[in-house]
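@here heads up, posting the sequence + SMILES for the nicotinamide-adenine-dinucleotide run so it's all in one place. Ping me if the SMILES looks off, I pulled it from an old spreadsheet.
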Amino acid sequence: MCMTSKKLVVVGQGYVGLPLAMRAVDVGWRVVGVDVDESRVARLAAARSYVEDIPDRQLVAALGSGRYEPTSDYARAAAFDVAVITVPTPLREGAPDLSYIVGAARSLAPLVRPGVTVILESTTYPGTTEELFAPLLTEGSGLHPGIDFHLGYSPERIDPGNRVWNLVNTPKVVSGVHEDSLAAVSAFYDTVVERTVPVGSTRTAELTKLLENTFRHVNIALVNELAMFAHELGVDVWEAIDAASTKPFGYLRFTPGPGVGGHCLPIDPSYLSWRVRRSLGRSFRFVELANDINDHMPDHVVRRVTEMLNTRRRSVAGSRILLLGLAYKKNTGDARESPATRVATLLADLGAHVRAADPHVDAARLPPRVTLVEVDAGELAAADLVVLLVDHDAFDRDQVARHACAVLDTRHWLPTHDRGRRPVAAGGGHPLIPAQVARHDELAFAVEPL
Ligand SMILES: NC(=O)c1ccc[n+]([C@@H]2O[C@H](COP(=O)([O-])OP(=O)(O)OC[C@H]3O[C@@H](n4cnc5c(N)ncnc54)[C@H](O)[C@@H]3O)[C@@H](O)[C@H]2O)c1
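bot reply: prediction finished. Complex structure tokens:
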């Protein structure tokens, strides 16, 4: 494919669409990035990225190449060769909200011409491409997918913040409504990624994405539930996980935490269970159980906070609690559906003075009644309890260990904590703490796992 003459439109310039647009510019496409959010478009035009994996200098280069145009005007996408849709697919009252896909399809349809290729990337339930997306394109263009133009689905596997696996080196599952469509979709992705994995139908490709995320969701729920029981049984779940992870076959490592967040795990499995219930009248019990466990992890964190304060003869009400991390995952600023927000809200409801530090998250995403602070010695020492919720690389383990009085470590982040042990009386010491460090508490430094 000679790309310098080819025009790609990427609909949605978010965590998924922007990296795709940048990569396509890199390999020679002329790219129009359409987004209905005018403030995002203005930021892109000013080369100010809001996606961590895309540095400003990459935007500067893309804009400077003359082959990248961010816009809110669909007319700028006219005469495209390939269109990729990367709009949100949230839940509304527990059910899939496909209104963004519907909106994008209606706006794009009048621009669809014979011979073009249209690809849906948004995560959704099996059947969406052919039952919902295709009819809208036909309605607005008078053309039929698989006959007049190519149509396919390709799930996105982007993992924000992952330094090893990115858009280019992660294999990309591709599908089409017919063989020719599959060939056209594969030909497009062959220009931007190292390896494509063709599957036989758009439904299979849609299900593949939901299988991947449901698998993660269920396994995280498994270790989360295990972590709660192990704590009560007085067994170190982390040591057991480390030991189990030495098995070279038949085991995959998942780790407990304060809950799941982001745009994928708390949402995607529910697309699948909704579809199963709607089409088959059955419940997808694994998904429902995993939702139940993962949704309640913030309550478990608050219970553990209460226990730890209790040991120190304090109540949650009136205690000063410092939360480390507000994002839903390590090294990102994405706080969508973050369990940290729920923890903060629950603690504030109980009357705690909640303070939070996160070098990545925008202050505008701060939950109500929470004070945003920088982590320093004074802030750590003044907290009755520090709760490590996100193990960002920017946090300093030694600083936390040196100055905090007590830490609830939900991510097994502090390296030498007293596994499973209760706080010890002053003078008992901690391997990371110099004995002479004075603390404002009658108990010595305590670190406890989730
Ligand atoms: N973020 C991830 O890590 C990730 C990974 C894999 C898959 N996905 C899936 O990819 C899809 C997009 O996710 P995201 O994280 O990039 O979302 P996002 O919210 O970061 O970006 C989506 C963008 O689409 C824009 N938009 C909405 N309606 C539009 C319309 N009609 N026309 C043009 N633009 C429109 C929004 O303004 C927004 O900027 C979702 O289905 C998500 O589940 C996300």
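MO: Residues 209-294 form a domain with the N-(1-d-carboxylethyl)-l-norvaline Dehydrogenase; domain 2 fold (CATH 1.10.1040.10).
MO: One more: Confidence is low (pLDDT under 50) at residues 417-442.
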